[in-house]
Amino acid sequence: MQGFAAVADAVPGATGLSNEIRLLIGAYFVQEHSLESAALTNPSIVRAPDQSDVPDGSLRVVVSVRAVGEGHVSSIEFRTGTIGRDGAINLTAAGVPVAGQRR
């Protein structure tokens, strides 16, 4: 909403717009890009340094990928997650802070 707030005074009827439209207008004006719209490449996974509160037989990991988005703009994205005893990988959703982490 910060992008929209920067231009709200110039948008006719701004007070009656839905949150979705406000987000879209804000994205246009600050040129935000969809990071994952085209491809995710070059994955990497490493053991996370903090293994506290991880169930026995599981491992907390940090995953990085190269995200190629609109206009072939590349970014590096990071996720945390766990590998369970059964080998299943569960990644934390984007934008969800890790315990003890500030946003």
Class derived from helix and strand content: alpha+beta
Q: Count of helices?
A: 2
User: Average pLDDT value?
Assistant: 82
Uncertain spans: none
Give a structural overview.
With 103 residues, the chain is of the alpha+beta class. The model has no long low-confidence stretch (mean pLDDT 82). The longest helix has 12 residues. Strand 2 and strand 3 form a beta hairpin. It has two helices and four strands, in the order ααββββ. It is elongated and about 55 Å long.
Short summary:
This protein is an alpha+beta fold. Helices cover 17% and strands 31% of the residues.
Task: Provide the descriptors you would attach to this structure in a database record.
alpha+beta; four-stranded antiparallel sheet; elongated; 103 residues
Topology (SSEs and partners):
Layout (H helix, E strand, L loop, with lengths): L1 H6 L11 H12 L8 E9 L11 E10 L5 E10 L5 E3 L12
Antiparallel strand pairs: 1-2, 2-3, 3-4
